């Protein structure tokens, strides 16, 4: 049956395929999350620069840099966890497509950080 109304749920283009959560549980976590995924970062972007930019949207609880598991070098993404959902929503709305270190970054909802997710599939050696 067709719907006349568009869902008010936050639309997230980023999906953590390794979460292995059923779609309903994944969506439920997104709907209550205070964590955002930040992608397309330069590998040279410092944690301090990200903190400075994202703290303008609200108080940051935790910032986790994406790392290459073998070399422990930055991998071009991070997770920013806020104390409130409203601050996270402000970051998604206002910082997605912003420029940081001459790169257009992507900011999207995330289901929440779990240890081990900071290790990306970097192709750097």
* Class from secondary-structure proportions: alpha+beta
- Report the helical percentage: 10-25%
Tally of contiguous helical segments: 3
Count of extended strands? 7
> Strand-residue fraction?
25-35%
Instruction: For the largest sheet, list the strands in their spatial order.
Output: 6-1-3-2-7
| Biggest sheet statistics | 5 strands, mixed
Rounded Rg: 15 Å
**Molecular shape:** globular
Termini separation:
50 Å
Order of helices and strands: HEHEEHEEEE
Overall pLDDT: 84
**Low-confidence segments:** 5-10
Descriptive key words:
5-stranded mixed β-sheet, 125 residues, alpha+beta, single chain
Can you walk through the features of this model?
By secondary structure, this protein is of the alpha+beta class. Helix content is 23%, strand content 27%. A 5-stranded mixed sheet has the order 6-1-3-2-7. It has a two-stranded antiparallel ribbon with strand order 4-5. The longest helix has 11 residues, at 85-95. The radius of gyration is 15 Å and the shape is globular.
């Amino acid at each position: 049956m067709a719907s006349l109304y568009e869902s008010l749920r936050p639309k997230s283009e980023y999906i953590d395929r390794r979460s292995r959560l059923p779609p309903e549980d994944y969506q439920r976590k997104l709907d209550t999350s205070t964590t955002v995924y930040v992608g397309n970062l330069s590998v040279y972007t410092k944690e301090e620069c990200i903190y400075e930019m994202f703290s303008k949207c609200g108080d940051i609880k935790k910032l986790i840099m994406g790392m290459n598991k073998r070399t422990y070098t930055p991998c071009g993404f991070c997770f920013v966890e806020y104390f409130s959902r409203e601050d996270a929503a402000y970051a998604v709305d206002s910082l997605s497509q912003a420029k940081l270190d001459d790169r257009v970054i992507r900011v999207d909802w995330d289901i929440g950080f779990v240890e081990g997710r900071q290790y990306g599939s970097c192709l750097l050696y």
